[in-house]
Amino acid sequence: MDIVHLLKKNNSITDYIIIGQGIAGSVLSLSLIKAGFSVIVINDASLSSSSKVAGGIWNPIVFKRLTKSWLADDLIPELIDFYEYWEKEFNTTLIHKRHIIKPFTEEQEKNLWLKKANDTEAKNQFLDVSSYENLSIDPNYQVRSYSKVLQAGNLDVAHFLECTKAYLTNLNSYYEELVDYQKIELSAEEIKYQSHIAKQLIFCEGYLISKNPYFNWIPMKPAKGETLTIKSSHISLTRDIFNKGFFIMPLGNQLFKIGATYEWENLDDVPTKKAKDELITKLNSIITSPYEIISHDAGVRPSVIDRRPVIGRHPDYKHMLLFNGLGTKAVMIAPYFAKNLISHFQTNEPIEHEVNLERFYKSK
Ligand SMILES: Cc1cc2nc3c(=O)[nH]c(=O)nc-3n(C[C@H](O)[C@H](O)[C@H](O)COP(=O)(O)OP(=O)(O)OC[C@H]3O[C@@H](n4cnc5c(N)ncnc54)[C@H](O)[C@@H]3O)c2cc1C
What we know:
By secondary structure, this protein is α+β, with helices and mostly antiparallel strands. It is 26% helix and 31% strand.
C-alpha cells in the first residue's frame, strides 16, 4: 500500500497536528509523512506569513566575513535532497540552483576574497574567485570585476507552499482555519483540538508565536522585511543572483525580485513607502533603464534573539512542541532540522543543543 492510501485509511488518532503552513510547517509535515507518520495541518492563510514574501534564496556565505554560513556543509546537501525528493513527488520544479554574483568595488575587496578562498584550513568550497570580468547587468551598468558564490539558489516558495497544500488536501490532512488556543485540550496521553486527536502537536506559526499563550515567553527578535517585484526588458541577468548590499533575482518572463529591507519596529505585513524608497534608491544605483514595479510585499521574519532556530518540547506539556525561529534562512535550515526532530521522535536522538528550546526554559 502506498503512503497516500495508508494515510487516508488511518484517520482515527493522528500522530502530529501541525499549526501553520509556512516554510516551517510545510517542510516539517512533508518530512513526517515521508518518515511514515500521519499529520494534520491547520493553517489560516489569511494571517501574516513571512513565507509568502520570502525571496527563497539559500546562500552558504556570510558576506560580512566571507566565511561559510552556520552549518552550511550540512545544510546544503540536506536541502537539495529534500526539495529534489519533493520535486519528483509533485512532478514539478521547486528549486533553481544559481550562483550569486558579488561585484568588487575595490581591489582590496578582491584581495580579501582571494585570501579567504585560498585559506586551506577554512576549506571554503563555496567561494569562487576566478577573475570574472565585464558582466553587463543593464545597458548602462557593467560589472568590471566580480566573483561568485557557488552552490547557492532559490526555492520558489509560493509554488512549494501551493504544492504542499494540494498534497495535504489530497490526504484529507489540511484544514483551513484559525486555531483558537483556548480550545486545545491536553491530557497525559494525547492532545485534542476540536475533532482532531493527536499524540503530539507542533506549533509552526512564525512570528505570530507571540500570540500563543503556551510559547509567548520565547525571546524572539522578529525583523520586518520588504521586497519589490519589477518588470524590465533591459536587465540582462538570466540565471544568477546579483548582490551588492541588496539582491536582484531573475524570476523569468522579464520579472525580477528585489530585496530585502530590515526593520525591527512596527512589526506588521503592511508595505511602507520608506522601504520602497530604500529599495528603489539601491536599484537605481545599478539600473538606469526603465522598469515597472509589479508588486511590493512585506512580511515579518521569525528570528530569535540568539539568531538560532528554536525547536523542542514545552517544559510543562510534553505533547506540545515548537518548530520556529527560522529567521532569515528558512529554506536552508528547515529540511535539516526537520530531520533532526524526526530522529528525535524515532530514536530519541537529542535535538541539537544550539537550537533546542531547552535553552530558554529559564525565561518562562
Ligand atoms: C522580505 C523577506 C525576505 C526573505 N527572504 C528569505 C530568503 O531569501 N531565504 C530564506 O530562507 N528566508 C527568507 N526570509 C525568511 C523566511 O520568510 C522565514 O524564515 C520563513 O518564511 C518562516 O517560515 P515559518 O513557516 O516559520 O513562518 P510563516 O511563513 O510566517 O508561516 C506561519 C504560518 O502559520 C499560520 N498561523 C499562525 N498562527 C496561526 C493560528 N493561530 N491558526 C492558524 N494558522 C496560524 C500563518 O497563517 C502562516 O501561514 C525572508 C523574509 C522576509 C520577510
